[in-house]
Design goal:
It is a single chain. Helix content is 42%, strand content 16%. It is built from 23 helices and 22 strands. α5 (74-94) packs parallel to α6. The longest helix has 22 residues, at 420-441. It binds pyridoxal-5'-phosphate. Pyridoxal-5'-phosphate binds next to α13. Pyridoxal-5'-phosphate binds at residues 106, 108-109, 131, 133, 155, 255, 258-259, 293-296, 342-346, 546.
């Protein structure tokens, strides 16, 4: 650090960084900044073992684990699983509720085998089960769930073979529930159960009237694609009665959407569901389980007031569910059911972090001491006068003149009245003026508007080594907010602001929504540090463990990044439990039917012809083929 930097940093602390980047708001007990100014992860709370992300990743270089890198922390999943069980059990004890709590993890939220294995392992003592929403997910659940006490909940649209597999697994001792999403499924369940001579455990997904707000509100309400209306429910019950299967109805279920921002619709939904349960009880259906689905949200932006946030916490969520069920059961004098929740996002969102490096930047230099020659065009001279007079006339006047002149620069060029060299000089003068005016209006209340407008113009563009389409699809598709920040240098005051753009050739390939924690506003840029020559600048996107991996796509053929699973040990130590290698270029090419041998052959044809024509030497051709082959086995990202 030079003297200027040291002075600058005297006025800056890690707690200011923590505030600026919102860690205070979304970091929970898992993420904070250490004394070195690096982000640290501590799955078991701030006072227990913690891992310095920057130091860990720096040490990965020797082990040829490359950026961009997805870090997974199974300990965080485990901590979240414990948390949800503890909170429900506390609510149950405090309120003297008669049923138990069962968690099931919805596989669709993160299907990676290592994640599922961690959940099954961590869930052994908690009797945590799995939820499947499709046939492939069912195959995962049936083969991996080896705890007979844990539940397997089968949702999603089902055909005969889906149902057959589930019923056979029930015979094999699994505690499995078939949740009817469409009336037709009930016929299939009855048919197969008779054939296999067993009593199925049937559930019904309710189409509630209560609709949630937020990104996924459409999952609920009258027109949602899922579940049975009250009419369909009643006629299904009739049928079960005729067939003498009423005692098989064990469960009712609803799911009113994901990342539900407000507790109100959750309370309403559970009331509506409890009422239906009590009616079913009168119809001689012994409902033993109420499955409240997913939707438990995460504080992505830390505000507690937006769609990317929640206005409740997990204990409140559990209390409200237990309370609503208990009140109605007591009123109606019916048994209190066990409670199942299918929270997915809540369990895994915080467990993954994507770390990437900044490859390069575009920035506006704003040179000082510009001069122009006597015989420059009058246009340039006018521009230069504005620049020279900035300190003499009012800032407002300078600002207005500048904006007007900027527009004129390009008009004049298009009409052929300015050479390219003159245009370049005019731009140079413009940016020098902007820079100077920004400095002059900084921290002056009367000129705040001017300052902010100009500062935005001076915003750098940082080129990030990742693809938003592959690694952060919800940010692109839904303008969803994820916390993003540098994972080191947080003792230094960030002196720049930058847009974060990705590697794809797509103008949408940018993190377009970033919280400005100073003003609690959404911006498209963020505070960053200047890049240093011989030191990588590493940034992390946090809370990416739910949905992002599987929804990611191969835009521009950027594939999966490297991933490592980090198990945190005592005394700030860790081990790498699993290493999952990034997709190689040949692997992503295979997806689109370009096969390695075949494209190498194609390249050979081309180089052979060029050799014959004398355009390229044999050595050069060999070198090209060699480099080509080398890259086939490389990751799709930049070194
Ligand atoms: C997606 C889904 C979930 C998981 O929801 P989260 O909001 O991630 O907890 C649970 N149940 C069903 C039926 C789902 O479709």
């Amino acid at each position: 650090m030079n003297n200027k930097e040291i002075n600058n940093n005297k006025n800056w602390s890690i707690s200011q960084s923590s505030n600026l980047y919102g860690l205070d708001f979304w970091g929970d007990e898992y993420f904070s900044i250490n004394d070195k100014g690096n982000v640290q992860v501590h799955p078991y709370g701030k006072d227990s073992s913690s891992i310095d992300l920057y130091e860990m990743i720096s040490s990965f270089k020797e082990r040829s684990i490359r950026l961009p890198l997805l870090l997974r922390f199974p300990d965080i999943i485990q901590a979240q699983m414990k948390k949800i069980c503890v909170c429900f059990n506390k609510a149950i004890q405090d309120q003297d509720y008669q049923g138990n709590y069962y968690g099931v993890f919805p596989i669709k939220v993160n299907q990676q085998r290592h994640v599922i294995e961690d959940i099954i392992h961590a869930g052994k003592d908690l009797n945590f089960g799995l939820e499947a929403g499709s046939k492939p997910e069912l195959l995962i659940a049936l083969s991996y769930m080896d705890n007979p006490k844990a539940l397997i909940v089968c949702n999603g649209f089902k055909d005969k073979s889906y149902i057959e597999m589930a019923l056979l697994s029930q015979k094999a001792g699994r505690n499995i529930f078939l949740v009817v999403e469409r009336q037709k499924e009930l016929d299939l369940i009855l048919e197969m159960s008779k054939q296999l001579q067993l009593k199925p455990q049937i559930g019904f997904r309710l189409k509630l009237n209560t609709q949630s707000k937020g990104f996924w509100g459409k999952s609920s309400g009258e027109y949602s694609k899922f579940g049975l209306t009250s009419q369909q429910l009643v006629s299904s019950i009739e049928k079960l009665k005729q067939e003498d299967f009423l005692d098989c109805v064990k469960l009712i279920h609803f799911h009113i959407g994901s990342q539900i921002p407000s507790i109100q619709p959750i309370k309403l939904a559970i009331k509506e569901c409890a009422m239906i349960m009590s009616e079913l009880y009168l119809m001689k259906c012994p409902i033993e389980y109420v499955d409240v689905g997913g939707g438990l949200g995460i504080n992505y932006d830390g505000s507690g007031a937006t769609r990317s946030s929640t206005d409740y916490d997990i204990q409140e969520y559990a209390n409200d569910i237990v309370f609503a069920l208990q009140s109605l059961c007591e009123k109606k004098k019916i048994p209190q059911p066990h409670i199942i929740s299918e929270s997915g996002r809540f369990l895994v969102a915080q467990s993954s972090i994507l770390v990437f490096n900044i490859l390069d930047k575009n920035s506006i230099e704003g040179e000082k001491n510009i001069t122009i020659s006597e015989n420059s065009s009058s246009f340039l001279k006018e521009m230069y006068d504005i620049y020279k007079n900035i300190t003499h006339i009012s800032y407002n006047e300078s600002f207005n003149d500048l904006i007007e002149k900027k527009k004129q620069i390009y008009d004049t060029f298009i009409y052929g009245m300015l050479s390219l060299t003159e245009l370049a000089l005019a731009e140079k003068i413009y940016w020098a003026s902007v820079k100077q005016l920004t400095q002059l209006t900084k921290n002056k209340e009367d000129y705040e508007d001017i300052f902010l407008t100009l500062k935005k113009q001076l915003t750098d563009t940082y080129f990030c080594n990742f693809s938003i389409f592959q690694s952060l699809p919800d940010s692109w598709a839904l303008s969803y907010i994820f916390p993003v920040l540098p994972i080191h240098r947080l003792r230094e005051k960030p002196n720049k602001q930058a847009y974060l753009v990705d590697l794809t050739c797509d103008s949408d390939g940018q993190i377009s929504k970033i919280v400005d924690y100073k003003n609690w506003e959404i911006e498209s840029f963020m505070p960053v540090h200047d890049l240093k020559k011989n030191e990588p600048y590493l940034m992390g996107i946090f809370l990416t463990g739910a949905y992002q991996e599987i929804l990611g796509d191969l835009h521009n053929l950027f594939g999966d990044t490297d991933a490592v699973h980090i198990r945190v040990k005592d005394n700030n130590k860790y081990i790498i439990e699993h290493r999952v290698k990034a997709d190689s270029i040949s692997e992503v090419l295979e997806y689109v039917e370009f096969h390695g041998k075949q494209i190498i052959d194609k390249l050979h044809n081309i180089t052979e012809q060029s050799i014959i024509k004398g355009d390229i030497t044999r050595q050069e051709a060999d070198l090209l083929v060699e480099k080509f082959e080398e890259n086939l086995s490389r990751s799709t990202y930049l070194k």
